[in-house]
Amino acid sequence: MIDHSLVKRFRQEVGDRLAHQRRLDQANGLPAMTGEDERQFARALISQVLEEHARGEIGLGRTPPTVEEEEALAAGIHAALFGVGRLQPLLDDAQVENIDINGCDRVFVSYADGQELMHDPVADSDDELIELIQILAAYSGLSSRPFDTANPQLDLRLPDGSRLSAVMDVTVRPAVSIRRARLGKVFLSDLTGNGTIGPDVARFLTAAVAARKNIMIAGSTNAGKTTLLRALANEIPPGERLITVERALELGLDQFPELHPNVVAFEQRLPNSEGQGEISMAELVRRSLRMNPSRVIVGEVLGDEIVTMLNAMTQGNDGSLSTIHANSSMEVFNRISTYALQAGERLPIDATHMLIAGAIDFVVFVEKRNDYHVGGTLRRYVSSIREVNGCDGRVLSSEVFAPGPDGAAVPHAPISCMEELAAHGYTLGGW
């Protein structure tokens, strides 16, 4: 067991010395330390502080920490300075899928095998938990994000790519949910290997991306929409310029220059304490069209940006990708219509359906199911792919891949743009 009160105290000491060194460097006209240099310097400071602590304990006639205890303290201090404190071991565990925190001492962890277990507290008090989230909010993303009584909601991307959502003051205790990005650099071959998609679906999606088809990925929360979006994006040739638009940076396509050397990532900016400075998703989508994109990728559609995005898809930005929450591939059209009604344009349903028909080529539905009859294994898989065929008062579509015997998508109906897909290597006997 690690003494978290010591970690907190030493974190403050090391942080103060680190800040003092930054001020000295600035006063002497020296260049600022890089992130890696700062981490190395912090490690030296941690060793220094722990050595002083050990000497102090000996001087008081007490037993100093053992080598193992010192290593645990050092790791805890470093995580508190540069990571996410006591959450770091959970984020370092490759089997952890989701972390739900209902107050500092009510921590529930979901694992890749479907288990959900209660975990040790991640802070000594709710105030300390809030302080940890505030520190993360100050340094994650492109701009500092407030988390306080006036701004009780927060969404951000952690350094490892995981998505954090937090609320306070609208719940009895602060609540935090972290959804792990277990597959960062992911390809369709990886998803074929883990059963998310079958070989036919993989070949189809590869050809659809190459043919610059506009694809909307749908599914429930935590179904794997973003992971599939990353895999599809990694099918895009490296010579294309990608613009991503997100509420909180999550896709991270710019982190792999060998795959995508030309990427600009846009992040929604929230208003400041005076209510000024907000830049909405819809504005960012409009701005992205002026940045010479080969393709525009909208991380997640949740509101009025849908109209701007659909317009972008019909104005020459073929090959766009996005995700949306829905319960089926067919329900996507109603969900989009609802968002469009709420947008500033107040598009009527028939106009929205015409816009959908001209913008979206395929809807890919990802399903999440806990198969309790086979030991509680959590499955994520593509169960349906729907092709948009036109509009006649409503969106006309056909389910070209439908659920097979095990629920996974299998070829079901002819694809109207088969010739285009065939030009990019997709063939399927019989269609």
Give a written overview of the molecule.
Belongs to the GSP E family. There is one protein chain. With 431 residues, the protein is α/β, with parallel strands linked by helices. It has 3 domains: 1-82; 90-182, Beta-Lactamase (2-Layer Sandwich); 188-422, P-loop containing nucleotide triphosphate hydrolases (Rossmann fold). The protein is 36% helix and 22% strand. Strands 9-8-10-11-7-12-13-14-15 form a 9-stranded mixed sheet, sandwiched between helices.
Reading off the top of the CATH hierarchy, the class of the largest domain is best stated as Alpha Beta
pLDDT averaged over residues: 86
Instruction: Return the CATH architecture of the largest domain.
Output: 3-Layer(aba) Sandwich
In what range is the share of β-strand residues?
15-25%
Helical percentage: 25-40%
Low-confidence stretches: none
Main sheet? 9 strands, mixed
The CATH topology of the largest domain: Rossmann fold
Distance between the termini: 62 Å
How many domains? The number is 3
Q: Looking across the biggest beta sheet, what order are the strands in? A: 9-8-10-11-7-12-13-14-15
The gross shape turns out to be: elongated
Looking at this structure, what is the CATH superfamily of the largest domain?
P-loop containing nucleotide triphosphate hydrolases
SSE-based structural type: alpha/beta
